[in-house]
Amino acid sequence: MAVNTKESFGRYDFVKNVGLFGGISALIFVFSVVYLAVRGINYGIDFKGGTEIQVKFSQSVHIDEIRKTVDPLHLGEVGVQGIGEGSEYIIRFVGEKGANDKETNDKLNAAIARVKEAISTQYASVGAEIRRVDTVGPQVGAELKRSGLLAVFYCLLVILVYVAMRFDYLYSPGAVICLLHDAVITLAIFILVGKEVNVPILAAILSLIGFSLNDTIVVFDRIRETEHTYRGHGWAFIINKAINDMLGRTLITSGTVFVSSLCLYIFAGGVVADIAFAICVGIFFGTYSSIYIAAPLILIMEKLKLSPRAA
Question: The pTM is what?
Answer without folding.
Answer: 0.70
